[in-house]
Amino acid sequence: MKIVVIGTGYVGLVSGACFSHLGWDVVCVDNNPEKVSALQAGKIPIYEPGLEALVKENVDAARLTFAGDVSEVVEGADIVLLAVGTPTDPQTGRADLTYIYQATEALAKSLSHSVLIITKSTVPVGTGNKVKEILDKQCPELECLVASNPEFLREGSAVQDFLEPDRIIVGSQDERAKELLDQLYAPLTNRGYPILHTDIATAELIKYASNAFLATKIAFANEIADICEGVGANISKVIQGMGMDKRIGAQYMQPGPGYGGSCFPKDTLALTHIANDAGSPTAIVESVIASNDNRKKRMADRVIAAADGSVDGKNIAILGLTFKANTDDMRYSSSLDIVPALVQAGAKLKVYDPEGMAEAKKLLTQESIVWCDTAMAAYDGADIVVIVTEWDEFRAIDMPALAKTMQGNVLVDLRNLYRRKDVAAANLNYFPIGKTKYS
To answer: Is 263 a catalytic residue?
Structure first.
């Protein structure tokens, strides 16, 4: 089959590279000429482990190409994937579907034969029907099929998630569409990976419901961590005990500075609008959003409390800026709340992230921030070190060497990467999440 992927962002590029890896002929289209030129030159615009090598392998094998105009490559295509952005509209809080509909309009003007159009982007319930309406209006002589195939790609492990999926969700209303979807994913389902066929609305909702549930687990773990601090319990043991119950599980139950990224914040918010439109408000998801927003805003207060109530004039090293490890994504990262608050409180900040510095500089514009090339450069002479992101290189810091390099002795670990006894042995004061000095 020939597949055209419209959009070369996170979802589009990963999906295009992986489909080509499965053996299909894939063309990824983007209306940004600079991005297309960069991709054609082998430059990957995002950091995602394994993606650069996968793109190169399939470009070299002539299974993956890039183009700037869908009209030039859609001829002969069997399937077109819509993988453009659906950001949150800042005015309404709803998913902005402008790019989806623009891509559909452009596609409709270019088609001369029937194809299957799949929404790969995360879209509210009813979007598939709207896409079908646009196609029927623009090219009524063609019997184009529409389907929903939401992605479940975790940033930092997206390639693995695509090629070794927990499940493949596909929604369609037509038997021919179902057959094409089965053919598309046969290289995976033939190896035993499960596929679930639903109607389009159900597939669209599965994505939102899944992300909202995972966000709920994170917010719940964070609130339990606060309770642990109040009663002297140990959050790590609490989660371990809870996770031993197969009905609960320990995944997505690690406490931290609040969730961020491209999915959970916008998808939980979009789900509240879907629910309200359906006349069934979701109080649980609304509470999760409020809880997470408050959590991120309180993280700077934790650092200030660890400094005996004031960071004015203190040298603080921030280790990690991205919302999670193994990505350069800064969207909704807790560092976007922590860093400005500490600067406002009078702290002198030196910051470092292994992959997110370029993106972070676009969002953290305070002139007093010192950008460092290494973690050691950041914490050299620091009064306080704050671990914000759980990068592997921050898991193996030599504590005695850290103590000698620092000026002060406070380590605030917002990811619980260390054991208290190892930090204490280096004569550092340790402030983790959900643990008291006795737990």
So the answer is: yes
